[in-house]
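Figure 2 data, in text form.
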Amino acid sequence: MVEHLQRHTDDWLAYFATRGHCDPQPLAAGVEGAVYRLGEGLVAKVWSGRPPVGLGLIRQVYADIARHPLPFATPQILAVEERDGVLVTYERELPGAPLRGGAGNTPRHGTCPHARPTPCSPCCAAWRPCRARPRCGS
């Protein structure tokens, strides 16, 4: 299977430093973009290619999911900006480690991305009341 993972760049690290983030660090990367840890509970996601269609809908789904009492943290987009045609979202940092290894990610296969090492199936069961429920591992 071919994967097209994004890469972290020194240019983005320098950009976040000029924006007042003292020690930005690569955190994770995937098909949609690269994520940088900015400190103080904040991350920046640099989206690849064109901005995601329906970013407003993504924000709405995140807010809908957050209204449910879940045993794990969910994303929250705090701010959005564009730099040279590239979309950047600033989000609260979620506890735990990325599921996928490589490309700057710390592997943690078989568990959900939160601090407690709970298998995916109980976490997915908690998503049942939500209107939008992704499959674990996707």
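Caption note: Residues 82 and 88 are 6 Å apart (CA to CA).
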